[in-house]
Structure to design on (127 residues):
């Protein structure tokens, strides 16, 4: 699968998770060895989360905001190789057309066989 297709599917899965509260579409994009780092204002150090901790957090957030929309703006993709990509974008979560949360996201993707997975992700809460 071409990387841009995997990225577009991942972003669509984020939107679907917030619309429905069902995060199962996101699970396939996180590598078994996934590491996530999620920061916000006032926090100097964040503890890494693994795949399951990350998915549990997204489940809680998306269910609490069920019916919201999630979109990405200003994506930048840099391919390190045919099987290794780095992506940055702004993630906007909106309800009734108003932002609920905005994050700056940095992801490291790797291709395993024919499947692309996020191996590392850092998201900083902006507002």
């Amino acid at each position: 699968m071409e990387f841009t297709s995997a990225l577009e599917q991942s972003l669509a899965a984020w939107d679907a998770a917030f619309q429905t509260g069902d995060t199962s579409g996101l699970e396939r994009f996180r590598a078994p060895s996934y590491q996530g780092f999620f920061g916000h204002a006032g926090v100097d150090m964040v503890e890494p989360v693994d795949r399951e901790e990350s998915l549990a957090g997204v489940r809680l957030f998306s269910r609490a905001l069920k019916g919201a929309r999630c979109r990405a703006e200003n994506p930048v993709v840099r391919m390190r190789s045919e099987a290794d990509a780095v992506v940055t974008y702004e993630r906007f979560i909106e309800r009734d057309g108003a932002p609920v949360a905005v994050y700056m996201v940095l992801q490291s993707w790797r291709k395993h066989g024919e499947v692309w997975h996020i191996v590392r992700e850092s998201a900083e809460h902006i507002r």
Summary: The first helix runs from residue 3 to 20. Helices lie at 3-20, 24-27, 51-64. The CA atoms of residues 37 and 122 lie 5 Å apart.
